[in-house]
Amino acid sequence: MLEGAEFYFNVDHGYLEGLVRGCKASLLTQQDYINLVQCETLEDVKIHLQTTDYGNFLANQTNPLTVSKIDTEMRKKLCREFEYFRNHSLEPLSTFFTYMTCSYMIDNVILLMNGALQKKSVKEILVKCHPLGRFTEMEAVNIAETPSDLFNAVLVETPLAPFFQDCMSENTLDELNIELLRNKLYKSYLEAFYKFCKNHGDVTAEIMCPILEFEADRRAFIITLNSFGTELSKDDRETLYPTCGKLYPEGLRLLAQAEDFDQMRRVADHYGVYKPLFEAVGDGSGGKTLEDVFYEREVQMNVLAFNRQFHYGVFYAYTKLKEQEMRNIVYRSSSFEVPIL
Amino acid sequence: MGSLFRSETMCLAQLFLQSGTAYECLSALGEKGLVQFRDLNQNVSSFQRKFVGEVKRCEELERILAYLVQEINRADIPLPEGETSPPAPPLKQVLEMQEQLQKLEVELREVTKNKEKLRKNLLELIEYTHMLRVTKTFVKRNVEFEPTYEEFPPLENDSLLDYSCMQRLGAKLGFVSGLINQGKVEAFEKMLWRVCKGYTIVTYAELDEPLEDPETGEVIKWYVFLISFWGEQIGHKVKKICDCYHCHVYPYPNTAEERKEIQEGLNTRIQDLYTVLHKTEDYLRQVLCKAAESVYSHVIQVKKMKAIYHMLNMCSFDVTNKCLIAEVWCPEADLHELRRALEEGSRESGATIPSFMNTIPTKETPPTLIRTNKFTEGFQNIVDAYGVGSYREVNPALFTIITFPFLFAVMFGDFGHGFVMFLFALLLVLNENHPRLNQSQEIMRMFFNGRYILLLMGLFSVYTGLIYNDCFSKSVNLFGSGWSVSAMYSSSHTPAEQKKMGLWNDSVVRHNRVLQLDPSIPGVFQGPYPLGIDPIWNLATNRLTFLNSFKMKMSVILGIIHMTFGVILGIFNHLHFRKKFNIYLVSVPELLFMLCIFGYLIFMIVYKWLVYSAETSRVAPSILIEFINMFLFPASETNGLYSGQSGYTLVRKDSEEEVSLLGSQDIEEGNNQIEDGYREMMCEEFNFGEILMTQVIHSIEYCLGCISNTASYLRLWALSLAHAQLSDVLWTMLVRVGLRVDTTYGVLLLLPVIALFAVLTIFILLIMEGLSAFLHAIRLHWVEFQNKFYVGAGTKFVPFSFRLLSSKFSDDVA
């Protein structure tokens, strides 16, 4: 790619960038959150959200209002915005958007397969699927019995297909294998996305690469944390780590050997970026969990992405920030999840 | 003139509303639209206000009404729109209304649901029949094998199962058939092939008529498909894939008899469903018709109710919680109306203690209210688009009524075009009560709202057109030209004299392409044309030069008068706001500067017009050079405008002007500094340095502004020139061509030519040119005129009035 995005970026993507920056301005502010905290019922939340950019998105909902209704409507709204961006995008931005949806698609596929394993009906699970990761072939996922089946029959024409190269196997899909499949898919997905951004170069690479590196490392940490006390062997564990992060290669090797949280922390201590994060984690009761700390860091990086112009990172950052906002609202709302009479 | 010259005096009033009567009082106020409420609970978030419950109830009602309107529209039942707007419902009726509406909604939802179910059923049956019909053609070739099948009777004869099976050679031959969305066919087939590894046979055909999708109600094209496969395992997969692509799968009949049977059964069921559906629809229609009668008044009532509660949310409770306190801005002239409205409200609710009000003094700037009528409204809008006037400031709209159409007309000066515009506007004005015009779409609406502006613009264009003597670019010879060509031929002079005076004879006429009339020869110029430009200029080749000089001088004169008037209006502002020092220190120097430079320029122009005649025109000095020399004091002697200008008898006057003009700049700057000191003494918190800076900037800006603004008024000349030239081009390119063809064919040609001429005249000259002249006239008012005195930093008075609620429910509900 040519360097110097400022010369040609606006020709193709200027409109969308302007739009996404406008959308970003509609994110809830500190004052909004203060008001949300004061809310006492879901109705209050609804009334308050009406005064924000969400508008009367809940106007047509019949009573009683539930958290899931709010959640679906919010997701729908995000999805509408995203679809608009995507439909108006040009290459290579549209590929970028496809990459963005891939993570949701992976989640949906895994969700559906888990559901099939637990003999739940497809319709029931479809409701839970993230609308951004929806695709037609999705519902046929439960036909497959092995990962290669899944690839050959269902996913070969979807954008997920290239990520399957590492995980073609004839293993039956039980719970562990599904989890392994998810992580492997994610690993190849992150690596591919990272490569795409790196090849694109310019400001996009400068912004997106750190975000994706962080994402990769976060996954590595989380995988390690979750694999403590499971039957996953250390070698297997290492194959799941995405290799595009800052931890690669020494950190990942060390992580693969870690046996408890303290050893993990010691690995993180070698890295200036992650040391403060692990220090912020409270121990046991109170304090933040590792997940919260990671979320905070992610949000911080996404907010900073808006400080530069002429790059695709803003779209990624906006979607992530909006998701975080939705998580916040749902978290806030679910605290008074009692049927309102 | 009072009310349009300045905005109305406002006062801040406090209303004490007894809590029992508050609703009725506000309802009475809303009908009258007298006051603007101030939000007393600004830092209370929206869901913590007092009347949130009531607002929520209104929203619930609105939701039901929106649903009703949507259903009524869907059933194509006309919604009657009442002429009158019903008052906000009394509180007692609200509950009743709510109950009634909720009951209606429940009933409606149920009936609609039933209807939808029936409809879906019907659609499915129709699809099924279509499928049977089409698949029959697929398996035609199998028909001859049918006897073979019968040897192996199906083991499980459950036709309700999605696919029917036949046992043959140890494996089951199964069929799945159904309908699939047109767009999905390809992907569907591919996936089938991949999953079943080619062990299936798919046949499909497009359905010739599009059908409605039972799920979404969309009318789309469908494909009928038939999949035949071996084995149960594959059957499951095929079923799943069908689910995935949202196919509508229907049981496939095994034999011809079965097919016939099913078909007959389907036909009777479809018939039955039709009758039931018809009945249901009839009933639904009845319900909706009944609802449609009252829905309009309900919508209006709920809107009013919601507005009242929003206003009540802005009030604060007093300590005893017995009455609400509202703070309102009210025009002083309407105070007794306000009192009466409050009494009315109290009386209506039957309260023992009446609500009352008192005015409270305030230091805050009140909102600006300028009452307009349908005539002045458009002009006020032009001014407001620049900025709503500060409270009690001189309102330029009053003067805009005349100056705006006039400046427009100077640029648009054409008798014919102006008359067409005038007629169009007159048509709008005469039909202004026509309902179609009131509800017309954007562009038409724009014209309609500006109809009085258009009317005046047309009238003034007729006038300036007469002055320019332009009618569709041609001149009209009404009074007979003041020039006589025959006088040039006059033979009363001796040949030598003739030669000297440049008179014409036959050889001159024959050999010269251009002939010149000389006004100094007696009899050639008999005096000015009575009104406007002499039509003989239409023939002259130097017409443009003549008109340019005339129009340029005219636009400078008009511009300077306009701007000087603006500065004088500034004096009115200073007088009103009691800032006398501003008159001496700002307005007077400004006037002095303006008049001494540009006023003097006008003087020179007029002087030259009056003093120099045809005989002396050759020695007349150029005004431009004179004007420049005034600044440069050139060493070389020039021919002055008037005798003694360069330093003899009348020198006093001129140099005095020059001195004063040079001085005025210094004086002004000096004065402004004095003024700063003035203010400093009056109010300690004024920052001297800051005011000094703004005043210095202001005076520099004013001096430079005067020059650039005067130049800016030259657009009057430029646009009028452009307009005249464009219409001239249109005439020569079209009508003249048509007129030149000989009589027999010319008639045939003239008709389309005239039609084209009319169309182009309307679109290019009237609309396009009109728009550009309009924009330039706006600019001259906003920038050149209003910056001399108008601050425009006020806020508009927005009364709480039900009339401002949109009375149409179709656009915001549907």
Describe this structure as you would to a colleague.
The complex is a heterodimer of chains A (341) and B (814). With 341 residues, chain A is mostly helical. Chain A contains 15 helices and no strands. Chain A has helices at 5-25, 30-38, 42-51, 67-87, 93-117, 122-128, 147-154, 175-200, 202-227, 234-240, 250-257, 261-269, 275-280, 290-305, 313-334. In chain A, helix 9 runs antiparallel to helix 14 (290-305) and helix 14 crosses helix 15. Chain B is α+β, with helices and mostly antiparallel strands and 814 residues long. In chain B, strands 1, 2, 10, 11 and 12 form a 5-stranded antiparallel beta sheet that branches. In chain B, strands 3, 4, 5, 8 and 9 form a 5-stranded antiparallel beta sheet that branches. Chain B has a two-stranded antiparallel sheet with strand order 6-7. In chain B, a hairpin with a 2-residue loop joins strand 3 (164-168) and strand 4 (171-181). In chain B, helix 12 (397-412) crosses helix 24, helix 19 packs antiparallel against helix 20 and helix 19 runs antiparallel to helix 24 (715-740). The radius of gyration of chain B is 43 Å and the shape is flat. The interface between A and B is medium-sized, with 25 and 22 residues. Chain A: This is V-type proton ATPase subunit.
What is the strand and helix layout of this fold?
The complex is a heterodimer of chains A (341) and B (814).
Chain A: H1 5-25, H2 30-38, H3 42-51, H4 67-87, H5 93-117, H6 122-128, H7 147-154, H8 175-200, H9 202-227, H10 234-240, H11 250-257, H12 261-269, H13 275-280, H14 290-305, H15 313-334
Helix pairs in contact in A: 1-15, 4-15, 5-6, 5-8, 8-9, 9-14, 10-11, 14-15
Chain B: H1 2-5, E1 10-18, H2 22-32, E2 36-37, H3 52-74, H4 91-138, H5 140-143, H6 146-151, E3 164-168, E4 171-181, H7 185-196, E5 200-206, E6 211-212, E7 219-220, E8 222-230, H8 232-244, E9 248-250, H9 256-313, E10 316-317, E11 323-331, H10 335-349, E12 356-360, H11 377-386, H12 397-412, H13 415-430, H14 435-438, H15 442-449, H16 451-468, H17 495-501, H18 506-511, H19 543-576, H20 580-611, H21 623-632, H22 651-682, H23 688-712, H24 715-740, H25 743-785, H26 810-813
Antiparallel strand pairs in B: 1-11, 1-12, 2-11, 3-4, 4-8, 4-9, 5-8, 6-7, 10-11
Helix pairs in contact in B: 2-9, 2-10, 3-4, 3-9, 4-9, 7-8, 11-12, 12-16, 12-24, 12-25, 13-16, 19-20, 19-24, 20-22, 20-23, 22-23, 24-25
